[in-house]
Amino acid sequence: MAPDSTSEVDVLIIGAGPAGMMTALWMSRLGIKTRIVDKRTDKVFSGQADGFQARTLEILDSFGIGERVWKESNHMIEVSFWNPDSNGAIKRYQRAPNNIGGLSRFTESVLHQGRMEAFFLDAIAASYPHPADPSGSPLKVERMVLPTSLDVDEAAAEDEDAYPVTVTLRHLTEEEATPTQKLSNLSDGLFRSNLADDDVGSMLAQSKGRVDVREETVRAKYVVGCDGAHSWTRKALGPKYEMEGEMTDFVWGVMDIVPITDFPDVRTRCMIHSASNGSLMIIPRENKLVRLYIQLTEVSAGGGRVDRSKITHEMIFKAAQKIISPYKLDYHYCDWWTAYQIGQRVGNHFTKCDRVFLAGDAVHTHSPKAGQGMNVSMSDAYNLGWKIGLVAKKIMPRKILSTYELERKQIANELIEFDHKFSRLFSGRPQKDILDETGVSMDDFSKAFNMSHMFTSGLGVNYSPSALVSKPPEKALLLESDKEVQNEGTPAAQSKLSAATNCKPGMRFPSYQVMEQCDARPWTLHHKMPSDGRFRLWVFGGDISQAAARERVNALGARLEKGILARAPRIELGAAANPFAGTARFRLDRPPSVVDVMLVHTAPRHEVELLRDLHEVYHPFDAKLGWDYDKVFADGESYNEGHGRAYEGYGVDAEKGALVVVRPDGYVGLVTELGEENWGEVETWFEGVLRMA
Ligand code: FAD
């Protein structure tokens, strides 16, 4: 064995799937010293996940890659429901929108996972140079690397300068790291399926005894296990770290084909229930591809695990032909296929000592048909990444890390509840008549599907109260059932939420069009909130052409300047957030505050002079780059793109105004009234989450 070496790193990410890539992207944007390793030789080339929720596209857009996915993907606008008629033949029964209009500028879209992984790599590279990471070398995925041991020094967990997690990494040869079958090999598409066994054992066995095998020791401040459903990291944390839930008897096949068919809705998302041959879902994809999810009624799990050797792609396709008959279905080109058994499980713990975290499939697995897996996995990492990054930079206290499990375990449980309901309705046999108690009512199925849009779009996420989410105890609307959320709420914001009725603490801050004060350019506000680690304090100041309103926002500005902005930490921005970051001549004289103050007013734009009328916190000055003109916006009629009616959208009364604090991940942390008596509440909120001077 080659000699052991030891190194230190702030964050070690295990696994470079969607969750690992999202974690790595955050770390690159925050300039955190990070390594990301993956046992595989390469990224995914075809198949696997393909569905992007509207919220995921918003998140990707905040890193500058949403538009790329949006442009290349197929947008799913409509859904058709096909059910058996009285003679048992399938018939179109309903057409419905596939998304709720007006909630987001994106809709559900499909593009294969490998393409998205490529965009991630580009976005990570675009983060450099980063002044906070003087190494100057962009974060790269280290492939063919397998962890073999993990140890947490629990006694050192609360020492913020410690590296309490020790991981041994083994470097594999290409042969050892290559799975027995490749995705493009149609003779066995099952190696990425949940029917396949974990291959870590065989990889280790192959490398055992090799004389030149290289191992190294890495001491990390934080480790994030993003290593999928068979998570090695989870197992390495010990027997207490379990997946809880169940495996069902439902077995499904998946095929990505270019179909040759007379079925009329093949370019529409379709839910087809046949009378007795099972169900089929059609997902029209990019490049003429169509994904078929096919129920395999003839494969029985018999209460245990399906024998994968019984499944072939010919058999899956025959099942699809039966379900869709009397329409004809054939193909010349198959891009990918696989099969899986539906299981629904959630990890009982998402973290050990807030030093090792689990994200993505490592802590939740479920049926892929609702297109949630990749999205929820990326959202876990999106929730976690900035928290680890800002704690590692000593901008936030360590206690904030406990909100990861609080927030994401709740979402994983909601996901499993949704999947449980949806997959049983979809896999069930259609009801013959109302006396058929074991059949599924097709009315119930389409109703459940249409009701679930808030959840499946990712826009319904509503985090519980914590230091990061100030709100009273509440009932969360989950799917169609009104479910009590067990929380105590936070005392602060009991009565002030009505200041901005559509900004809900715990939910994502919506986006409406406003006009830039300095140049009249219309922007949707999400474009002014890149994922760069900063909190945003949105000041809805009303008609500041009126003296009283103007004096109010300027008095607030003076208080912020001496209070929060003087005491909050500053944050260095890399090339993606500040194109001048790498050019010494243009570099900001001082890094900006981690609290970004933004103003939206309702005054006629021409009656406001930015530099003359407004306090400097709304146009901060930098000795090298001059005034910042990008913080004040008017809610008014634009020259060419209409009126965004942002105050109406956010639910703010222009007379009263409002203050809204938005976290670095775009979720609302605090809503309160604009009056002076509420400014202390904003200060208290920031004192709870930032390490103030
Ligand atoms: P993964 O994507 O599994 O990534 C884990 C990464 O960790 C991999 O790169 C792996 O090589 C690496 N790794 C694993 N073990 C180790 C180790 N010990 N050491 C180092 N590296 C390791 N989701 C959707 O949203 N829509 C769909 O249509 C859809 N279809 C699917 C079809 C199938 C057959 C499967 C299996 C899943 C599907 N999913 C779908 C789910 C989606 O692919 C996953 O939810 C998503 O990929 C999870 O992301 P992740 O990053 O958590 O894990």
From TrEMBL:
Pathway: Secondary metabolite biosynthesis. Keywords: FAD, Flavoprotein, Oxidoreductase. Residues 8-418 form the FAD-binding domain. InterPro entries: FAD-bd, FAD/NAD-bd_sf, Phe_hydrox_C_dim_dom, PHOX_C_sf, RIFMO-like, Thioredoxin-like_sf. SUPFAM superfamilies: FAD-linked reductases, C-terminal domain, FAD/NAD(P)-binding domain, Thioredoxin-like. Residues 461-690 form the Phenol hydroxylase-like C-terminal dimerisation domain. The keyword Membrane does not apply. Signal peptide: none annotated. The keyword Glycoprotein does not apply. This is Phenol 2-monooxygenase. It comes from Apiospora kogelbergensis.
